[in-house]
């Protein structure tokens, strides 16, 4: 029965036919869904083949053609020991262990030194716990902290931390290079110094480091560029050197349990001396010390007072654990720059009271607990090495937690035990001698080790070189991965690989940054600086874990169970604390750099959706805020317009009047809630494509006009009901619009049916019933663009008080650059029984308390006599309603009658066919009946509901009502025109029974006419006129609704830009603070 699906199946491939037949038989119920949704088997297959990793540092020349290399590469699945534990060990143990740990112990003392190391180890251990939770929450691609944080906290945080991690790795390479040069120049080959004896001046030593460091950087860069294979193989050698060196130190401490006599120091009183051979360590007359400390050694005159008053002694450097020197090393020996290294901290001993230092060893930097944390912290970094290799691990979710935590536990044990062993083995003075100047420029750790100091010197040099090569290899690949993610546009050039597959451009940038670090020339400066970048990374890892745990996101299901959000928060707190303890200046630099990158990615970066925790945090915060808002209505002081913009789509499915969006943007200044809503006429299912197009076009229009908010579309066959549903239901909880912007129905009077104004009035009634404020801009095409600047007046005609919205709106508009140069004028109307002088005083006082600057005018409307013009306008309105009601014309005939009565377009008329109402308007305003009046009932460029073309720009209404005719001739012609108009009206109604004019309509028309007269007189030059929108009629008959529209038309004729406002029935502005 399914054979016909492949045309009989005569020539189809057998396997495909069988598979299709099976699919048709077993899954026919889901056939339509399978057309655009994959089968489960297809999905699983794609997941199994998924790969998204930073390319491994492999030699491109080793790639085998024909795909042979792929097979071989697939078998490189490493376990916990080889893949995670040993790489972490290699990266954690670094140059600081060999050249600075003894100095840290001696300066800080055994107790503070132990706390320094413990604090740093706690940071990495807590970070490792958080990292293990993240790494076991699904498949983690290579890339270490960058990928974990970016996928957990979003592209902004991920990009910022990725760049920090890259900078820290690059500066780590610089530190390793400077450390390697220090080992060679200071301890292995002092004769290589270019600038002379560096023991006399520290700057000479640092200049040597800069020169040799630059040369070593060039050589290492060429190695990384040319021979990646060598880097990978050398890593094994470096790891072996590190392990063997540490073993040699432990064995040496055991061998020297009783101490040894290989190292002695020369001490003057309590001060440590340098550059003195042991045989010359004496105060005998004629000894070299007299030549150093005395100006006239022959006569023993001009000698340093401290030298004269103290004897010289030799102190054994390696005393051994059995000596009890540990208790002498418990207290700290923190010093200021330039103070002497001595056995006590008495001021007369450590302070330099003379201008010369002679050959006494002094502190080259100021030391404190916090500074030493910053210097030591790089020794515990490198915990990401295992996660960086997750793509090569047989079981990454098992190996990463075990290997990383085991490596940190091992290295922490080594560091903490070394602190105690060094404090119990080495004399305090020798521990505090940073460069070993008192023992002839020897490395202290090297002289502890067994069997020979060269084991440590060569081992530490090679391990430092290996660590530097690894950093120079990994940093460019990390930069390339960030560039390929496309979240930082200016990094796009670095996403390119060379023909050999190497990130050459990224390597060049890395070398340049590394050179800047080398030029600093001092490990003690580089170490705290790169500590900041690593601490920022570790802090973000802890933050990511804490957020995911606290938010309880459904996707947060780590296999590693030994974590808790409190541990992550403690780790984050420690990271921030250590940063500021080390150097508040460097901490602010690192945070500022992260903040700038974050804002840059947020502003210019590509859109990425990684299911990050920040979005989950935003959702939780939004839920919490919405529940808080639901507790009650906002206080008057907190009220602000949350705008719902009702946008009508045109035939192209674009918003018909985009200037409504521009006006909303000017009103809100991009702040608060804005919702653009459109109602599509038609059912949803058959028109779903058009509905989506309307929504996308509305979003684009909002973005173009810089309206920050949301867009939504409702499809319904009943547009008024659809608008009612939108007004009632849009928003969520307390975050609902309280203000509606509704467009004026242009050309309503020319329409063939009442829908044009019925929809408008039903929406006005719905908004009023919902107790929402309503803004109706009339003449929207004449409103300024958001890029324009207008100057002049914003006139507020305050007729009735409905919550103070009329006062608040111009204030908000003037916050925008478009209306900023406009001045505010407030008009109010005084009746016969009102005291206009007192009203003006009260209004000024009210505005003073509102802190609103405005010019105040009170308009007196004492004439309550209804003019003939009012009767005439009312008569014509009633005649039209009666004719349409009694004759029950079809649409075409009705349009003909209405067109003859209310077509006000003079461009389409001859002098002989001037319409009736236009003649009445012109006669009322004192305008030549034969001249085209600039007063219009319709909007500039308005089109009728039946698709009439908009008026030309030249037809825009003027702020003036016309040129009055001079002398009595004008009055006579106006009276004649008025009489002719009345006669024409009577003639048109001669076939009907007499029209009874409703007294209420006459009064309403009178109000509209009189107000329009004073408004046009006072505000014809205003940039915007804001006035109260009269309430809609309670009677919903077509006649009453048409009359209401006529009243509004009369009220606003002769005005170019009008904003009619109706409050929501609550106070929105207050004089109280």
UniProtKB/TrEMBL annotation:
InterPro entries: AA-permease/SLC12A_dom, KCL_cotranspt, SLC12_C, SLC12A_fam. The keyword Glycoprotein applies. It is a multi-pass membrane protein. Its main location: membrane. It comes from the Eukaryota. One of its GO terms (cellular component) is plasma membrane. Residues 939-959, 984-995 have a biased composition (Low complexity). Coiled coil: none annotated. It comes from Cloeon dipterum. One of its GO terms (molecular function) is potassium:chloride symporter activity. Residues 83-260, 364-644 form the Amino acid permease/ SLC12A domain. The chain crosses the membrane at residues 78-99, 111-140, 160-188, 209-228, 234-255, 361-385, 405-426, 529-550, 562-579. It catalyses: K(+)(in) + chloride(in) = K(+)(out) + chloride(out). Residues 939-999 are annotated as: Disordered. GO terms for biological process: cell volume homeostasis; chemical synaptic transmission; chloride ion homeostasis; potassium ion homeostasis; potassium ion import across plasma membrane. Residues 660-774, 789-896, 995-1073 form the SLC12A transporter C-terminal domain. Gene3D superfamilies: Amino acid/polyamine transporter I (1.20.1740.10). Residues 968-983 have a biased composition (Basic and acidic residues). It is found in: Cell membrane. Keywords: Cell membrane, Chloride, Glycoprotein, Ion transport, Membrane, Phosphoprotein, Potassium, Potassium transport, Symport, Transmembrane, Transmembrane helix, Transport. Belongs to the SLC12A transporter family. K/Cl co-transporter subfamily. This is Solute carrier family 12 member 6.
């Amino acid at each position: 029965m399914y054979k016909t699906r492949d045309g009989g199946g005569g020539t189809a491939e057998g396997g495909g036919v069988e598979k299709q037949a099976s699919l048709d038989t077993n899954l026919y119920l889901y056939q339509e869904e399978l057309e655009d949704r994959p089968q489960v088997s297809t999905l699983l297959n794609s997941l199994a083949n998924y790969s998204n990793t930073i390319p491994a540092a492999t030699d491109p020349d080793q790639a085998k053609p024909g795909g042979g290399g792929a097979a071989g590469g697939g078998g490189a699945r490493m376990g916990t020991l080889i893949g995670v534990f040993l790489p972490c060990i290699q990266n954690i143990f670094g140059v600081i262990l060999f050249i600075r740990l003894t100095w840290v112990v001696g300066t800080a003392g055994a107790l503070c030194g132990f706390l320094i190391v413990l604090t740093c180890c706690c940071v990495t251990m807590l970070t490792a716990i958080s990292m293990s939770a993240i790494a076991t929450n699904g498949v983690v691609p290579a890339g270490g902290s960058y990928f974990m944080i970016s996928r957990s906290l979003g592209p902004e945080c991920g990009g910022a931390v990725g760049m920090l991690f890259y900078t820290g790795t690059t500066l780590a390479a610089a530190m390793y290079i400077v450390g390697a040069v220090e080992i060679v120049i200071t301890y292995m080959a002092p004769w290589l110094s270019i600038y002379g004896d560096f023991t006399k001046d520290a700057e000479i030593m640092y200049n040597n480091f800069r020169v040799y460091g630059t040369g070593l950087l060039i050589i290492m860069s060429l190695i990384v560029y040319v021979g990646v294979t060598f880097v990978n193989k050398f890593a094994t050698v470096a790891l072996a050197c590190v392990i063997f060196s540490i073993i040699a130190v432990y064995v040496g401490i055991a061998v020297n349990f009783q101490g040894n006599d290989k190292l002695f120091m020369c001490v003057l009183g309590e001060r440590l001396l340098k550059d003195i051979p042991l045989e010359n360590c004496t105060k005998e007359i004629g000894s070299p010390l007299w030549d150093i400390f005395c100006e006239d050694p022959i006569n023993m005159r001009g000698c340093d007072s401290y030298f004269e008053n103290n004897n010289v002694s030799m102190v054994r450097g390696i005393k051994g654990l059995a000596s009890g020197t540990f208790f002498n090393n418990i207290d700290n020996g923190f010093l200021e720059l330039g103070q002497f290294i001595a056995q006590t901290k008495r001021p007369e001993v450590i302070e330099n009271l003379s201008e010369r230092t002679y050959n006494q060893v002094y502190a080259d930097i100021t030391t404190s607990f916090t500074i030493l944390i910053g210097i030591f912290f790089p020794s515990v970094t490198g915990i990401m090495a295992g996660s960086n290799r997750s793509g090569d691990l047989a079981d990454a979710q098992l190996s990463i937690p075990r290997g990383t935590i085991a490596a940190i536990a091992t290295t922490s044990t080594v560091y903490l035990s070394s602190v105690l062993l060094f404090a119990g083995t080495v004399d305090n003075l020798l521990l505090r001698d940073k460069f070993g100047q008192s023992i002839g420029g020897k490395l202290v750790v090297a002289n502890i080790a067994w069997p020979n100091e060269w084991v440590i010197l060569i081992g530490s040099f090679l391990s430092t070189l290996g660590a530097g090569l690894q950093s120079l290899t990994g940093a460019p690949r990390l930069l390339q991965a960030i560039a390929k993610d496309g979240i930082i546009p200016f990094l796009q050039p670095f996403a390119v690989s060379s023909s050999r597959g190497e990130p050459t451009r990224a390597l060049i940038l890395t070398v340049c940054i590394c050179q800047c670090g080398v030029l600093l020339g001092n490990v003690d400066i580089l170490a705290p600086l790169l500590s900041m970048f690593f601490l920022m990374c570790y802090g973000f890892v802890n933050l990511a874990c804490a957020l995911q745990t606290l938010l309880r996101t459904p996707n947060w299901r780590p296999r590693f169970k030994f974590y808790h959000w409190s541990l992550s928060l403690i780790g984050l707190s420690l990271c921030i604390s250590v940063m500021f303890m080390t150097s508040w200046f460097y901490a602010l630099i690192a945070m500022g750099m992260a903040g700038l990158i974050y804002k840059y990615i947020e502003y210019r970066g590509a859109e990425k959706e990684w299911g990050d925790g920040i979005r989950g945090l935003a959702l939780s915060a939004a839920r919490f805020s919405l529940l808080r808002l639901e507790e009650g209505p906002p206080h008057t002081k907190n009220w602000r317009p949350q705008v719902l913009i009702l946008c009508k789509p045109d035939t192209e499915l674009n918003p018909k009047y985009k200037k409504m969006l521009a006006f909303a943007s000017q009103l809100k200044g991009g702040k608060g809630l804005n919702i653009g809503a459109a109602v599509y006429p038609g059912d949803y299912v058959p028109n779903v494509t058009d509905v989506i197009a309307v929504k996308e076009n509305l979003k684009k229009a909002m973005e173009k006009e810089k309206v920050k908010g949301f867009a939504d579309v409702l499809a319904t066959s009943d547009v008024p009901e659809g608008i009612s549903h939108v007004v009632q239901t849009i928003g969520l909880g307390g975050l609902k619009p309280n203000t509606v912007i509704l467009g004026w129905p242009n050309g309503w009077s020319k329409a063939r049916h009442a829908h044009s104004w019925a929809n408008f009035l039903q929406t006005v009634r719905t908004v009023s019933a919902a107790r929402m404020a309503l803004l109706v801009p009339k003449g929207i095409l004449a409103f300024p663009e958001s890029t324009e600047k207008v100057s002049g007046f914003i006139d507020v005609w305050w007729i009735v008080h409905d919550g103070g919205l009329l006062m608040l709106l111009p204030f908000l508009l003037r916050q925008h650059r478009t209306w900023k140069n406009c001045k505010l004028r407030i008009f109010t109307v005084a009746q016969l029984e009102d005291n206009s002088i007192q009203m003006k005083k009260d209004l000024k006082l009210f505005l003073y308390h509102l802190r609103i600057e405005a010019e105040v005018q009170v308009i007196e409307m004492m004439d309550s006599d209804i003019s003939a013009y009012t009767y005439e306008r009312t008569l014509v309105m009633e005649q039209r309603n009666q004719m349409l009601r009694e004759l029950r014309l079809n649409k075409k005939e009705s349009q003909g009658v209405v067109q003859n009565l209310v077509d006000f377009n003079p461009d389409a008329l001859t002098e002989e066919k001037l319409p009736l109402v236009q003649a009445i308007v012109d006669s009322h305003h004192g305008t030549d009946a034969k001249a085209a009046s600039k007063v219009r009932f319709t909007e500039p460029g308005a089109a009728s509901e039946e698709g009439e073309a908009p008026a030309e720009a030249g037809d825009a209404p003027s702020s003036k009502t016309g040129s009055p005719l001079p002398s009595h001739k004008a009055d006579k012609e106006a009276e004649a025109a008025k009489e002719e108009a009345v006669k024409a009206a009577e003639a048109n109604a001669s076939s009907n029974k007499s029209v009874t004019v409703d007294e209420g309509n006459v009064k309403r028309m009178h109000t509209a006419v009189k107000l329009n007269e004073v408004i046009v007189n006072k505000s014809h030059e205003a940039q915007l006129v804001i006035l109260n929108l009269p309430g809609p009629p309670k009677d919903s008959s077509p006649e009453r609704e048409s009359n209401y529209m006529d009243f509004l038309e009369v009220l606003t004729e002769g005005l170019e830009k009008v904003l009619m406002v109706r409050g929501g029935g609550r106070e929105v502005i207050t004089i109280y603070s």
